[in-house]
Queue: 2 jobs
Job 1
Amino acid sequence: MTVDDATSSNDLAVAFAVLSDFLSENDLTAQLARVESALVEATVTDAAEVVAEHGLTSELLTAALSVRSTVGRLNDVIHAATIALVLPQILEPGERVTNRPSLGAGNDKSRPFDLETDRRIAEFKVAQWKGADAMRKRGVFADLVHLAMDETNRHAQLFVVGDAPTRFLRTSAAKASWGLEKSSARTRERYAARFDPSWEMSVAEFTAGPAARIELVDLRELVPGLAL
């Protein structure tokens, strides 16, 4: 490790400590509500005193920006680690991974699925749904459609976290047109040509019909840490 690397690591450790101290000492929602109330009718002098009193300092901002830039790809790490932990649990004797797994973010036409073997295809959705999940709903439906379009007859699996994604796919009356609204024009064209030219199917109808062969798997059963 060079001197610059050591300095950078130390700076990051300090930033983590500053941010951790602030978050551990305060319920952030309650803290922000107190600051908002205290700023009502504040003058320029009052405002400076209020923010300083509640710890919203330039040091805190610098620490938060530093941590965010460093851990910005944390979701990629979670996605990659999840697939890596699941793989040894699901591969059958003699089954071979036939294409590079897609562990990180980004679209790569040479790797159409997160996992491809000589026996299966699979997509992984590792997000934990919180309630307002419109983008996650569209994403998981798009992956279901993507798997349903495969014509190799390999076993297809969609790995999700918790009951909410599966419940959405199996019960939602939302139209497929809504579910694919943010998908590429090519995906929408292929969907309409193969499954639903009139765009009348709901998400639930598609899941029970064209996508019935796709196995929905709760990742919490394979990676208990995702239940946290």
Job 2
Amino acid sequence: MVDTFITFEGPDGAGKTSVLTALIPQLAAHLTRPVHLTREPGGAQISEKIRELILDPENTAMDARTEALLYAASRRQHLREVIVPALDAGEVVVCDRFVDSSVAYQGAGRQIGEQAVLEMNQFATDGIQPGLTLYLDVPSEIGLARIAAHRTSRQFDRLDQESLAFHQRVRAAYLRLAQQEPERIHTIDATQPMAQVVADCLATLQHFLTDSWQSR
């Protein structure tokens, strides 16, 4: 595990993008190290091209294992081109999604096997793991309702087309991962008001990044 590598996870509708938009400036103001925000799938030129393939709502014929392999390929390129160089430069890397997403969405949601997807990604990442993962938890029904309410102001992708049962399997997998790895994965109640979610995330990060934290 890499202490300066931090990931954010959550089911659809958890509000990760909004939380990170509000959180990153506050985090950067408190750290003695630069903060590098990135995302998956994507984050690097090749990885962004793979993202377009994966999320294109017209690609309805994509096989579940093809999807999982594309996520792993995107992740590998992103890791080698962006994440590892930033970590080597002494930066705190904050990544919107990482391996846990593949385990939850492809392993459980697509039902192709959580362990199989994990092993595929261990190969892709050389076993590199974040030191801390903040999991923003929200019931599937609430998350999907949020997506429906903001349909005109956000990208609609292939995963948004999936059933409630799919999203419930994804959330259940995330909860299992959090139970299995409580030292790494910290659960944040994402049903709270946005300001409180951001505050809870910042408090968790302060505790974890003590050596790089400075009071303002």
